[in-house]
Inverse folding.
């Protein structure tokens, strides 16, 4: 292995890479802009949209209730609901967002209250549509208030205190710091983005230095130079690795700056109890550097694997079609880390990509399992070494380099 020859190849490829606008956009522009746009832009948009949805007075429809004027009157008095006349196509109106929800009062409901007979009031809404959900919540709250008033009247008629039904209160209290709560919520998504950008940064240089060379007819020229195949592939590999690391470094830097610029990130998205969720993320130098360190062997793995696969293609377009499945191979385990209940274990620490995404989630939450971090780093280095070995071997095969 000749370091000087590797350096010459690297500088030659670096010069051409810097001149390529497409790779610069994927390596520099996208990582720098992606996190600020997602974090600041999306949060601002979410706050505005959810705030408007909360302020809107939902239009709802009452189905039945002709023989139960009490509950109907109670609903009509609620200032957070707009009662519209009954229509037979109420299901279609909910689906088309003409009204937000409907409440069905069963026949004989008022009489059942006097005879202690159980009746069920049904609320119909558009699941997944936020304004419809808010409308259903307003209806449910008003019905619960009416139910509580009925219970109080019954107890008062029997000279019993209302507290007899609630001898004690139950309260849930979070003890985890806000940073850990927020890290557990969005940490996996940030790790997923870092991994995806790291692969994207390596993809285009890997294609250009292999299939692109073949398509331009320059592969034969560079192979005829007095440089060994090992030095040649290592020079090209270092360029692809530089692109992947540059993308990872810029994405982590952009992520750190984005979170440092805002100490409190309030989404105003109400939970089922009507409480606003708050995300507080503060990333200092330690988690940022550790995330970048975990991305190092992964970048080596991506660079070598992408070069190896792209080398089998004859044209740039063919290489893109080969690497498209690689994107899914990366995305699926990275997304799996976002699933509820998926936590870092010694077995999962050996699964490439998934383990990196999980450990990024833990790091952002402020949890450092050093044994798992060391295991993930070591196993990823092993996978990276295997991928680099295969890349060198493929460059030494004439049937691969000059496949027709």
């Amino acid at each position: 292995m000749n370091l000087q020859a590797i350096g010459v190849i690297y500088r030659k490829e670096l010069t051409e890479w810097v001149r390529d606008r497409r790779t610069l956009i994927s390596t520099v522009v996208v990582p720098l802009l992606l996190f600020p746009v997602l974090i600041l832009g999306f949060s601002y948009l979410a706050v505005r949209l959810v705030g408007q949805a909360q302020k809107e007075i939902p239009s709802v429809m009452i189905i039945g209730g002709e023989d139960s004027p009490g509950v109907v009157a109670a609903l009509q008095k609620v200032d957070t609901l707009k009662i519209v006349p009954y229509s037979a196509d109420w299901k279609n109106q909910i689906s088309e967002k003409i009204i937000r929800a409907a409440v069905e009062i069963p026949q004989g409901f008022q009489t059942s209250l006097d005879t202690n007979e159980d009746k069920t009031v049904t609320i119909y809404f558009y699941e997944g549509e936020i304004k419809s959900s808010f409308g259903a919540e307003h209806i449910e709250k008003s019905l619960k208030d009416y139910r509580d008033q009925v219970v109080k009247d019954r107890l008062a008629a029997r000279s019993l205190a209302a507290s007899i039904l609630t001898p004690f209160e139950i309260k849930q209290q979070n003890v985890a710091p806000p940073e850990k709560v927020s890290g557990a919520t969005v940490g996996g998504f940030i790790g997923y983005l870092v991994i995806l950008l790291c692969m994207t940064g390596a993809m285009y240089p890997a294609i250009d230095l292999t299939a692109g060379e073949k398509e331009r007819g320059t592969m034969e020229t560079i192979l005829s130079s007095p440089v060994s195949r090992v030095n040649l592939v290592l020079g090209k590999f270092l360029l692809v690795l530089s692109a992947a690391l540059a993308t990872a470094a810029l994405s982590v830097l952009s992520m750190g700056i984005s979170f440092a610029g805002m100490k409190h990130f309030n989404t105003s998205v109400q939970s089922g109890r009507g409480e606003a969720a708050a995300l507080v993320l503060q990333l200092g130098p330690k988690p940022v550097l550790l995330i970048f360190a975990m991305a190092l062997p992964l970048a080596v793995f991506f660079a070598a694997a992408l070069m190896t696969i792209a080398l089998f293609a004859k044209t740039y377009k063919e290489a893109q079609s080969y690497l498209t499945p690689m994107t899914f191979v990366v995305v699926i385990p990275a997304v799996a880390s976002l699933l509820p209940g998926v936590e870092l274990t010694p077995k999962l620490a050996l699964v490439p990509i998934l383990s990196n995404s999980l450990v990024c989630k833990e790091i952002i939450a402020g949890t450092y399992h050093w044994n798992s971090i060391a295991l993930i780093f070591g196993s990823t280095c092993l996978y990276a070494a295997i991928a680099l070995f295969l890349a060198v071997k493929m460059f030494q095969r004439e049937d691969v380099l000059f496949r027709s």
Remarks:
- The chain has a mean pLDDT of 81.
- The first helix runs from residue 3 to 19.
- The chain has two domains: 3-50+176-401, 56-165.
